[in-house]
Amino acid sequence: AAGPPGAARPSGAPRVTALDEVGDLFSAGLDGLVVAAATDAHAGLVERAVAARIPVFCEKPLASDLDGTFQTVAAAAAGGVPVQVGFQRRFDSGNAAAREALASGRLGWLHTVRSCSFDPAPPPAEYVPTSGGLFRDCVIHDLDLIRFVTGREVVRVMASGSNRGDDFFRECGDIDTGSALLVLDDGTLGLVSATRYNAAGYDSRLELFGSKDSIVTGMDDRTPVSALPEGDAPESEPGGAPRHAYSGFMERFADAYDAELRAFVDLAAGRRGNPCPPEEALEAFYLAEACELSLREGRIVGTEEVRR
Fold first, then answer.
1. For the chain, which end, N or C, has fewer CB atoms within 10 Å of the first or last residue's CB respectively?
2. DSSP structure string for 177-228
3. pLDDT of residue 24
4. What region does 114 belong to: left with phi over 0, alpha with psi -120 to 50, or beta?
5. What is the pLDDT of residue 22?
6. Is the pLDDT of residue 1 over 50?
7. Which domains does the chain have, with CATH numbers?
8. Exposure letters 206-223 (e unless 16+ CB within 10 A, then b)
9. What's the pLDDT score for residue 308?
């Protein structure tokens, strides 16, 4: 909001105008809009921005369910206004380098890809009922990343999960730990894994195994894993957690968040193409839905079963 009349501003700083209502945004002459509100508000805000011809950056998900996502994607396509979805892992320097390495042929043909999302502690209990479940809330990032890096589509999934932590996950019909085996359209096998209980620290890694070479992203001196035998391993805090481990995804992907917003500024200004259009978010949601269906029914699910 703007400061009081006469308040000093840093030299060259843009003036910020306070708006009384959210609706005022759409007639304020904006060059772009960033939507980082509660999940159930995303679709409505994006659709209003598109109707007002305002380029939009929207944190994932576009909507809280598949129907809403499909509707919002259709509205964006019909409106012809740039809508960028916030899958920040696409902008991580390691993940971008992995994509280039695979495309260059350095790895040969890919036979296995693995991605993990391990949170150091569970979210607040009140968040879980509205999260959409572990696969839609968390694993969807891994699913999008595998599509982005490999350039392939997932054709089948087999998911499983467990609850060994707080009761509120089970009470909400959710899981605290889950994995899914993926089959890509070229025969590559994938594995995505996530948990709410990784006390050693936040861990997000992508591993690519090819016929010629293998690479990993997210593996550095802050990755919360220890090699055995330990030998000269760094000193650890009580409980074995490295003192320098990432505290969460905001810290782990700080540079990626910055890069994706810079990309949006360029998109809104017409200086680049869309690095993550709504259709990509829909594809990731399809895969998360397939994982949830597989989890519920205990069977292999073809992704065509959930597509429209």
1. N
2. EEEEEEEETTS-EEEEEEES--TT--EEEEEEEESS-EEEES-STTSS---S
3. 86
4. beta
5. 80
6. no
7. 22-86 (3.40.50.720), 89-249+278-305 (3.30.360.10)
8. bbbbbeeeebebbeeebb
9. 86
